[in-house]
Design goal:
Order of helices and strands: EEEHHEHEHEEEHHHHEHEHH
CATH superfamily of the largest domain: ATPase, nucleotide binding domain
Structural class: alpha/beta
Strand order of the largest sheet: 3-2-1-4-5
Low-confidence stretches: none
Mean pLDDT: 95
Radius of gyration: 20 Å
Strand content: 15-25%
Number of strands: 10
Number of domains: 2
CATH architecture of the largest domain: 2-Layer Sandwich
Helix content: 40-55%
Largest sheet: 5 strands, mixed
CATH topology of the largest domain: Nucleotidyltransferase, domain 5
Bound molecules: 5'-O-[(R)-(carboxyoxy)(hydroxy)phosphoryl]adenosine, zinc ion
Oligomer: single chain
Length: 342
């Protein structure tokens, strides 16, 4: 069983073909980073136009690389939300057109479910497990009970962790995307040199907040000498990691009240951060869980995770009608109160 997956919800245009025996037959991905870099962040209109320009070609390339035609597919999956709506519409309309023409099931995949299930494409991680999803758009702790069944234990009340890295890098003049730039600069700095707050630390629950940290950093940058950049980057990174670790430790306790999690999984672009991964190893060990960090290619936005979530849904008969409407917001846990980031 082979499924075509499409991802267009943010600044990556991607198509992938995945088989139900966990083989990724082909992947074609185009990052729009260079197009958005002059603006220091993602411009939705530019993103939507770029998806429209490139998606068809990427699908063609992936199909040719895998040596399959539409007749070989069992279904077509596209990110149906949450995300920048112009981009989501491009992916959904394209998947619907292929599905209508080739007579294939259409699967509207929640982008967060794509991230949540991606680990199962590389490893047998049994349900339930705890997921820390940290990217430019999302910052959540989710208890993954089953396909389609999630409990959100925590979310950010303002910025996502990756967004905080990006804004901090901008303040420090380190460019975009900020996470890798901060991590690089931090290597030469002292993480204890600049005092910065740790919002929410020690509080009950598993919610995050990063805007106060960003404001504090702005004040420290204004006072600091130019040569302090490495110390500022190291101190900022340490503060973010302290917050993520504290909230994750709480979430492990909360998850255990309700289920017996088999692992702590980390996903999203911020999972690329080496210092964060090392810290999460400790948090998982203290909580009696193993840490599973999928390869980076699968952590950042990609279409293989959308195809894989499509396969998991298709196996359960969870297909969608062609009347599916793209969703800018689409919480995985409908009972959770709305957060700053869906
Ligand atoms: O998952 P992703 O590629 O895209 C979405 O946001 O959905 O994540 C990108 C985010 C950016 O905010 C970027 O600054 C952050 O991940 N990031 C990092 C690192 N590499 C990427 N943050 C901290 N340390 C890194 N090494
Ligand atoms: Zn994502």
């Amino acid at each position: 069983m082979i499924v075509l997956g499409l991802e267009t919800s943010c600044d990556e245009t991607a198509a992938a073909l995945v088989a139900d025996d966990k083989r990724v037959l082909a992947e074609a991905l185009l990052s729009q980073q260079a197009e958005h870099r002059p603006f220091g962040g993602i411009v939705p209109e530019i993103a939507a136009r770029s998806h429209l320009d490139h998606l068809d070609g990427l699908i063609r390339r992936a199909m040719a690389e895998a040596g399959v035609g539409f007749g070989d597919l069992a279904g077509v999956a596209a990110t149906g939300g949450p995300g920048l709506i112009g981009g989501v519409m491009v992916g959904v309309m394209t998947a619907k057109a292929i599905s209508a023409v080739a007579g294939l099931p259409f699967l509207a995949v929640n982008h967060l479910e794509g991230h949540a299930l991606s680990v199962r494409l590389i490893e047998e991680v049994a349900f339930p497990y705890l997921l820390l999803l940290v990217s430019g758009g999302h910052c959540q702790l989710l208890l993954v009970h089953d396909v389609g069944r999630y409990r959100r234990l925590g979310t950010t009340i303002d910025d996502a962790a990756g967004e905080a890295f990006d804004k901090a890098a901008k303040l420090l003049g380190l460019g975009y995307p900020g996470g890798p730039a901060i991590e690089r600069a931090a290597q030469a700095g002292d993480p204890k040199r600049i005092p910065l707050p740790r919002p929410m630390l020690g509080r009950p629950g598993a919610d995050f907040s990063f805007s106060g940290l960003k404001t504090a950093l702005r004040h420290r940058v204004a006072e600091a000498r130019p040569e302090a950049t490495a110390d500022l980057a190291a101190s900022f990174q340490a503060a973010v990691i302290d917050c993520l670790a504290d909230r994750t430790a709480n979430a492990i306790v909360m998850a255990r009240e309700d289920a017996a999690p088999t692992a702590l999984v980390v996903a999203g672009g911020v999972a690329a951060n080496g210092a964060l991964r090392r810290r999460l190893e400790d948090v998982a060990a203290v909580g009696g869980l193993r840490l599973v960090a999928p390869p980076l290619k699968l952590c950042t936005d990609n279409a293989a995770m959308i195809a894989w979530a499509g396969i998991e849904r298709l196996r359960l008969g969870l297909t969608d009608g062609l009347d599916f409407a793209p969703r800018p917001r689409w919480p995985l846990d409908p009972s959770a109160r709305p957060g700053a980031k869906a």
